[in-house]
Amino acid sequence: MDTAEWYNTFAAMEARGQSATYEMLAGRIADDAELLALIEQLPEPKRQPNLLFGAVRFLGGPVGDYQAFRAWTVAEWEAVRRTMHARRTQTNEPGRCAVLLPVLAGLPQPLALIEAGSSAGLCLYPDRYRYRYDDRPVIGADGSPVELECRTDGPVPVPRGMPSVVWRAGVDLNPLDVRSAEDVRWLESLVWPEQEERFRRLRGAVSVARAAEPARLVRGDLNEVVGGLIAQVPAGATPVVFHSSVLAYVPLEERKALADKVRDCRWISNEPVGVLPFVDGRLPRPAPRDRLVCVLALDGRPLAFTGPHGQFLDWFA
């Protein structure tokens, strides 16, 4: 799709109901020829709305008023452009652990977790958070500063306890360090306006990761690194390769290659509809068309539709 259509789709399918500020900005940019021309100077993968808005906020620009946003962005375009070139969206949303947990808890224990597209590794600590599914009692790590809420529909196998995780590793083209103030500030810039709860849980998850034993985060291409990490899994642990809202930024052939590489592991994918067509082809019912949803799958078998930030879990019968 062209850039204007991309921003219109983002406004209608992703931001609507989640961030009025980003819905407004994306819709106005879609009709702003001058600003679109600047954005189109960037390579296509770097034109994404999240990256632009995160870069402006990271640099201290305004986002609440379109004219102020536009004037600042045009005046500071060189700094914005450099930041968009250097950074990636890398939204490290710990809320996604709420949709991963029922699958992780149902696998043979203990687990060795390997996350593709790990960012700062905050989703590598699902056993260190607390969870509330609908109005059920809270489960999870006592005293955790992070409580994740998730609405459910269908026969969700809500676990009674936490999975046992004995090893954690991740791969990313640009791993972020929870001990780096600048890296954490970038993560904070990627949290959408109005989403104060996401901001609080991000900070809580950063504190969890800082206090825990460090996960091994490796810089590199996921298809070149994942095999080596699988080979390091401790004996007796179930290797689990997982990823969530990552593969849209990877060419389709590389997505297929990853699926081939994880055949000897348990593979959990949680990607937007359309990203893994060879998984979507097994869906038992059509995906909603009025909102963005992800498909949660185990070993290529679809299990549920999920919210992009882990806010809901719609389990298939």
Helix content: 25-40%
Determine Rg (CA atoms, Å). Answer: 19 Å
Order of helices and strands: HHHHHHHEEEEEHHEHEHEHEEE
Strand order of the largest sheet: 3-2-4-11-10-9-8-7-1-5-6
Return the structural class: alpha/beta
Number of contiguous helices:
12
The largest sheet, given as strand count, sense and whether it forms a barrel, is:
11 strands, mixed
N-to-C CA distance:
34 Å
β content, as a range? Answer: 15-25%
Mean pLDDT: 95
Structure, described:
The structure is a single chain. This protein has 317 residues and is an alpha/beta fold. The chain has 2 domains: 3-86, no CATH class; 94-315, no CATH class. It contains 12 helices and 11 strands. The chain has helices at 3-15, 20-29, 33-39, 49-58, 66-75, 77-86, 97-105, 181-189, 196-211, 222-231, 252-261, 277-280, and strands at 111-116, 130-133, 139-140, 147-153, 165-172, 216-219, 238-244, 266-272, 294-298, 301-306, 312-315. The protein has an 11-stranded mixed sheet, sandwiched between helices. Helix 1 runs antiparallel to helix 2 (20-29), helix 4 packs across helix 6 (77-86) and helix 10 (222-231) packs parallel to helix 11. The protein is globular. The two termini are 34 Å apart. The relative contact order is 0.14. The mean pLDDT is 95.
